[in-house]
Each structure stands twice: as structure tokens, then as C-alpha cells.
Design brief:
The protein has 279 residues and is mainly α. It has helices spanning 12-22, 28-48, 66-74, 81-90, 133-139, 189-201, 204-228, 233-243, 252-262, 264-272, and strands at residues 108-111, 128-131, 166-171, 178-183. It folds into 2 domains: 12-139, no CATH class; 166-272, no CATH class. Helix content is 46%, strand content 7%. A hairpin with a 6-residue loop joins strand 3 (166-171) and strand 4. Helix 1 packs antiparallel against helix 2 (28-48) and helix 8 runs antiparallel to helix 9. The longest helix is centred in the C-terminal third of the chain and has 25 residues, at 204-228.
């Protein structure tokens, strides 16, 4: 599940100045010079409001030149201001998706406010976050609707009262368990609402199920070996959970082992119950 990322340290307003200065040919030279002041103000508003689509308006006046903004992202010149900023954003050490918590190499960047509706933020670093391909496909150009104005957690801006904002529950029978993924019950109502829509819109629960089933099989294989070696099953399972706490307790692995250690009946089954044989 989502993790809070350090906000890009680039000077967002200087980046705009640099981009405008690099536009030396018409018609983009005049266009970007004309909109520069308002562009910077809109980026200030984005930063002030944490990119919330309920508070950051679209910019209808520039939609006729939307391609000029989008091209800054899709075809940055080598050594250009935005090209260097984009490369810096892609040069990270994440091995999980910060939007869903899946184990994935996130080589692409997602526009939190989509560039189709908000082309002015196409190369705004605070609008660009690493995201796995399945999350990107499901998020698409969505931001919210009339009932729920904001669907998605912002990895740079949204903070919560708990570090772990999602909780997995495992129900028996433990030879073929069922899994329920939901917002953590100790979140506030507002926090839980945002987490619930994020889970729903990215279809995270459905995507987790295959992983959890396979992780359950891996767990049973590991426990079988622990028993055969006379090792403490409960202590080792707890150690496996603790190992997965970083970089976020909302990673798929941590959520699974957290659910196992919280379920006394399941843990007792692992310690002394009958275990199926897996190849």
C-alpha cells in the first residue's frame, strides 16, 4: 500500500524560469513567456493544496496549447531543465510501488493530476511519482467524481495518524484461507474514506489476492522446514514480519505477515496443526 515519499527538492518556480528561457523558437517562445507568471502561480497553488483536484483548478485558457506542455514531458531535449528534473525523479531506489505496495520496479512516473486534464503540471516534479504499470493502467486520467471528489492518496503530501493504513485479515479454514483487505480500523473516518477509495479505484484488493495465496503457500513450505529443524515457528514468523517493515509497513509482504501474527488461531495452526504438502 502507499508510502510517504520525500518531496522533490527541486525549486519548482526556477524550473519554470529555466524552461521558459530554453524556449528560443516561435511559437513556443512567445507562448511560454506569456503564460510564465500564471504558470508559476498555479504551481504555487498546487504545492499549497497538496495537488488536491478539489482545490487545484484546471486551466481552460491553455488547453489549445496542451501539446506544448505535454511535449516537455514526452520529448525533453538532452540536458534540458525538465529532462534533468525527470531523470532525477526516475533515479530512485524503490523496489515497491508507493501507490499499492506491490513488489515492483517502478520505472515510470505517474502524473498525480493527469496531464490530459492538467497539462500545466506535466513536468511539475511534485506532480510526478513512481508508480507500477498496473496502478497506472487503473488510475488513468481519473481524479474523482461527483460523489467522491478525490480518489487517490498523494505519496508526497498525504499523511495519516498511523504508519500502517491498510490491514489484512485472514479467515479460516487455514488450509485454504480467505483474505480481506481494508483500511486500518484505527484510522479516522476521513482517513479511512480516502484509503477505501484508493483501494477501490486501483483495484488493489483484487490484485493482492493472488500474491496472498502464493505467499500463504510459501509460508506453509517455510513452516514445514522450521518444524523439521525443531525451530520456533512463532518467533521466526514474527521475524519475517519485522523484516518487511521497511521501507513501509504497507508493503504486501508486511501486510501478510502482520495478519498472520495477529491471528492467534492461524499461528497456532502453523505451530502444531496439520500442514498440506506442497511441491
Amino acid at each position: 500500500m502507499v508510502m510517504l515519499l520525500p518531496r522533490p527538492t527541486v525549486d519548482h518556480l526556477k524550473l519554470i524560469d529555466d524552461i521558459v528561457a530554453e524556449r528560443t523558437r516561435e511559437p513556443n517562445k512567445t507562448f511560454f513567456s506569456t503564460v510564465a507568471l500564471e504558470w508559476k502561480q498555479r504551481v504555487r497553488d498546487y504545492l499549497s493544496h497538496g495537488g488536491s483536484p478539489t482545490l487545484v483548478p484546471t486551466w481552460p485558457a491553455i488547453m489549445g496549447k496542451a501539446t506544448a506542455f505535454k511535449t516537455l514531458y514526452s520529448h525533453p531535449a538532452e540536458g534540458s531543465a525538465q529532462g534533468l528534473a525527470l531523470q532525477d525523479l526516475r533515479d530512485h531506489d524503490l523496489d515497491i510501488c508507493p501507490s499499492c505496495g506491490s513488489p515492483a520496479v517502478t520505472e515510470t512516473l505517474d502524473h498525480y493530476l493527469p496531464k490530459g486534464k492538467y497539462p500545466q503540471f506535466a513536468v511539475t516534479p511534485a506532480n510526478l511519482t513512481p508508480m507500477c504499470d498496473p496502478c497506472q493502467r487503473r488510475k488513468g486520467e481519473n481524479t474523482g467524481d461527483a460523489v467522491t471528489p478525490r480518489f487517490f492518496i498523494h505519496p508526497y503530501f498525504d499523511t495519516f495518524s498511523l504508519d500502517q493504513i491498510v490491514q489484512l485479515t485472514i479467515d479460516g479454514p487455514f488450509t485454504t484461507p480467505t483474505f480481506v483487505l481494508a483500511p486500518h480500523p484505527d484510522l479516522t473516518a476521513v482517513e479511512a474514506g480516502l484509503v477505501a477509495t484508493h483501494l477501490r479505484e486501483l483495484q488493489i484488493a483484487r490484485r493482492y489476492i493472488r500474491f496472498f495465496r502464493n505467499e500463504h503457500r510459501r509460508l506453509l513450505r517455510g513452516v514445514t522446514k522450521l518444524r523439521a529443524s525443531g525451530l520456533d515457528v512463532a518467533a521466526n514468523v514474527a521475524a519475517w514480519r519485522d523484516k518487511e517493515t521497511l521501507p513501509t509497513p504497507n508493503s504486501w509482504q508486511h501486510l501478510f505477515y502482520d495478519a498472520v501474527t495477529r491471528n492467534g488461531a492461524y499461528l497456532a495452526h502453523l505451530v502444531s496443526g496439520p500442514l498440506p504438502a506442497f511441491p
